[in-house]
Amino acid sequence: MSDFFKKLKNVFIVEDPNAPKTPPPPSKNEVKSNATNAQTAPAASSQNYNTPSVSSPMSSAGGGQVSDRFLEMLSKAMENANQDGFDYFEFKQALANLKNVPMDDATRFKSAFAMSQAMGVTADKLVKSAADYLDVLKNEQNRFAQAANNQRQSQVGDKEAQATNLEAVMRQKAEHIKQLTAEIEQHRKEVDTIKSDISQAVVKVEQTSRDFDATYQLLVGQIQADVNNMKNYLK
Questions:
Q1: Are 9 and 69 in contact (CB under 8 A)?
Q2: Fewer Cβ within 10 Å of end Cβ, the chain: N or C?
């Protein structure tokens, strides 16, 4: 975890009060404040002004929760955009350093701004640097949205198309099965008819054969009788 990420969490996120605390490394603001003898309270380890707790993650309108993984990703982008000298991030650190000092919001902001003025920073510069950080975060949001859309397309859109295609194939095959089932039933009826015809044909052929044999035996018997009579009577 980078020092900048730790500082970002210290400034923007309220840690779990029951979790073990370790002193954070000196911030850029603390180093500068020591050099200019600016009056600040001891650096806070875990307080943000009007910011939700990590131990009770904030749920967005869509039900999302604050994630250390995305905080680190966004803090890296902010770190890369962090300007030399005193800007909005150091001003935010100064506000965090004043968290335990009994004062109202207006006094806290004015006190932190007095220190920033000692560093040669104007209110306009602070607002502009904050806007620059917002632009950085907006660019990260756009990049993430594009990546999420790509993932959604590959993980959801493509699979939905596959599912739709398979459903169409299933319908075609179900229709084909229905057609084949009807054809099989028709073939079964035809087979039953053919078998019935075969049975009738067998009976008919056997009866014909028996009739032929009976006729044959009749004629053969008569001829043999005539032959015998001719042998006996025609000498």
A1: no
A2: C
Read off the pLDDT of residues 13-53 as tens digits, 9 standing for 90 and up: 644 444 444 344 344 444 334 333 333 333 333 333 233 33
Annotate 2-56 with DSSP letters as a single string. -HHHHHHHHHH-BPPTTS---PPPPPHHHHHHHHHT---PPPPSS--TT--BSSS
Beta bridge partners of 65: 59
**Per residue in 61-73, pLDDT tens?**
457 888 888 888 8
- What residues contact residue 38 under an 8 Å CB cut-off, 6+ apart? 32, 114, 115, 118
Q: Which residue type sits at 191?
A: V
User: How far, in Å, CA of 53 to CA of 66, rounded?
Assistant: 9
User: From CA 177, how far away is CA 202, in angstroms rounded?
Assistant: 36
Q: Is 67 helix (H, G, I), strand (E, B) or coil?
A: coil
